[in-house]
Amino acid sequence: METNTSHRTTAALRIAGAIGVALIVALGGYLLLEATQPDTGLVSFSFLLILPAGLSAFAAYVSDPMATRPYRHYLWMPSYLLLATIVLSLVVLREGVICVLLLTPLWLLSGWAGAAIAYRMRRRGEPGNRLHSAALLVIPLLAMQVEPAIPLPTDHATVERSIVIAASPETLWPLLRGVPDVRPGEGKWNLSQDLFGIPRPIGATLSHDGIGGDRYGVWEHGIRFRERIVEWEPGRRIGWTFLFDDMKGWDFTDRHLHPDSPYFQVTTGGYRMKPLGDGRTLLTVHTSYRIATPVNAYARMWGELFLGDLENNLLAIIRQRAEHPLDSGAASGYRPGHAL
Length: 340
What we know:
The chain has helices spanning 2-36, 45-62, 71-92, 97-124, 131-146, 169-177, 191-195, 296-323, and strands spanning 155-165, 201-206, 214-219, 223-233, 237-243, 264-277, 280-291. By secondary structure, it is of the alpha+beta class. It folds into two domains: 2-149, no CATH class; 155-323, 2-Layer Sandwich (Alpha-D-Glucose-1,6-Bisphosphate, Chain A, domain 4). A seven-stranded antiparallel beta sheet has the order 1-7-6-5-4-3-2, with helices on one face. The longest helix is centred in the N-terminal third of the chain and has 35 residues, at 2-36. Mean pLDDT is 82; it is low at 328-340.
C-alpha cells in the first residue's frame, strides 16, 4: 500500500513539475513576443499553434518516464496545461476574458496534436531519453524567430443581420440617423455582451445630415468612435466608414481586441431598408472588417458571432423604438445584468 502511495505521489509531482516547466517556457515566450513584436507577436502561428503543441508534448513526455502510461494520459495533459495557462493569463498577465476564450480552442486542439506526437515518440524511444523532450521545447522558440519573415494572409469579411419591423421606412429613418439615449432594458440578451462582457451601446448622434457628416457612437466603459457618412439616401440607406481616433475607452480590455490594430480593423458599416408592404420594412445592418492572422478562417467564425450579436442587439433597439415608442425599454422583456 505504501509503495503504491509513493508511486502515485511521485507521478503527481512529476506531472506538476512538467506542467510548471511548460508554464515557465510559455511565460518566457509570451514576454519575448511582447518585447520584440508587441503589435503582432501573440497573433502568430507560433504562439497560437506550435507553442501549445510543443508544451503539451513536453509535459506529456516528461510525465511518463518509463513509457507505461496509456494514451488517455497523454490526451489529458493538454487540458491540465490549458487550465493552468488560463489561470496564469487571467490572474498574472491580466489578459481579458475574451482573449482567453479565443485562445482556448486553438491551444486545446494543438495541444492534443502535440500530445499524440509525444505518445508516438515515447513508444519508439527509450525510457529516460531526454533529447526528445528538450527538442519539444526548442522547436516553438525557433519558430518564433522565423515566422516574422513570413507575411500574414489578409482577408476581408462582412457580417450582416436583418430584421422585419412593423414600421415604414419613413418611421425608421430618424432612428438610423442615431438613437441618442439607449436606455437600460432596450436591446436583447446575447452571448457576446451579456456573458463575455462586450460593451453595449449608450447612444449615437449625427453631426449633420448628408455625406461627410459624423455619426458619434458612445458605448459602455467610455468607448467612443466616429462613423463618417459615405452613403446617404433618406428612407433607403445610410453607410459609413469607421474612425477610431479616440482609443481611451478601449483600455477596458487588452489591446489585442482593439478594432483598429495591424491584424484586425473594422472598416465600414451601415443600414439599408426594403419596404415589404402592409407597413412593414426589412432592415439590414452590415459591418465589414479586415483581418491579417495565421488563422483567418477561425477568426472569421468569432467575428460572425461577436459582430452578429452586436448587430442583432442594435436591430432589436430600433425595432423596440419603432414599434413601442412609448415603452421601448419594456418591449422585449430583457433586463441586463450590468450597470451603465
